[in-house]
Amino acid sequence: MPGNVESTHKTWVAINPLNDQHEVPAMSKSEGVNELVQQVGDFYAWIRDYWTEMGRNQDGASSGMLNFGLWEDNTVTMFDAEENLRALVANCLGALPPGARGLDIGCGIGGAAIRLVQERDVALTCMDLVPAQLEIGRESARKAGVAGRIEFRLGSSMDMPFQDGVFDFSYCMESSFHYADKSAFFRENCRVLKPGAVAVVADITCEDNSLVTFRSGNYFLAAEDLRKLMIESGFSVEDVIHIGDRVFKPLQSYVAQYSAGQRDKLRRYWNLVLKNYSTLSAQGKMGYEIFVLRKGGRQR
To answer: What is the DSSP letter of 271?
Structure first.
């Protein structure tokens, strides 16, 4: 375990992590890649159990997600908040053809993908750069009885191991702010989609990244800058939903209450991060946006 909060955060370095040699040989382009992936994996190993436990419902079931959640007035638990966000992203996909093939980019431990295939007639490829996350996702899909409809793949969002035009839709939920090269991500996302396919990107935005307390591994951009990159990459932007006021402050309050009386480094880290995000959100300098995109089409 890392020795302090700052050094722990600095292990989370997203500079185009590449794939494992045995799974996608073409993605292993430089020495030291496995070491970088290990560092990223170490960070998630550090936070995963804490976030998973916080995200259990009253019956002890896990959401299988590691997102910030969407906190409505009647939201009581982290489990419900995470499901609220997932459901909103799924709704933004709109109507999909029967048997549609989709891509979950930065899938984490697979909870969002499992819920989607349970409620829709779709098949999913789930991509993440952390092998341990993928293994948890595979096991969860097996237990849920949907393993035959979800493929888990190791890969980088900025250099995807897929052919052109193979997916009917994609979504990326609270992952893209880790990507150092946003242009490469949006180009790759657009490239692997079929013409006219929908893509949903839900993530944190920030008008001034220098105001973020912990910046290592976090590559926030302003919403308008992201929009420009999306358009330059071949997407039209059909809608932008702003939910920051229903994310940062209520999550900060929930985490503070959940961690009350406990002073370990992990809890102090999250308290500091969420206090910073809530302050920036209140100042209008940080947001949380859901972008609904279309490959091609008319720009609105």
So the answer is: H
Domain count, the chain: 1
Pair of tokens at residue 113: 């993908």
Order of strands across the sheet that contains 286-295: 150-154, 122-128, 100-105, 167-173, 193-206, 286-295, 235-242
Per-residue pLDDT of 194-208, as tens digits, reads 999 999 999 999 999
Residue 128, domain CATH: 3.40.50.150
- Are 111 and 140 a contacting pair, CB within 8 Å? yes
Amino acid at 258: Y
Q: Is residue 281 within 8 Å of 249, Cβ to Cβ? A: yes
Give the DSSP letter of residue 19.
Answer: -
Quote the mean pLDDT of the chain.
87
Q: Which domain holds residue 234?
A: 5-295
Residue 300 lies in a domain: no
Helix orientation angle between 33-54 and 131-144, rounded to the nearest 10 degrees: 50
pTM, to two decimals: 0.87
Q: Which of the two residues, 218 and 236, has the higher pLDDT score? A: 236
Q: Which residue has the higher pLDDT, 262 or 294?
A: 294
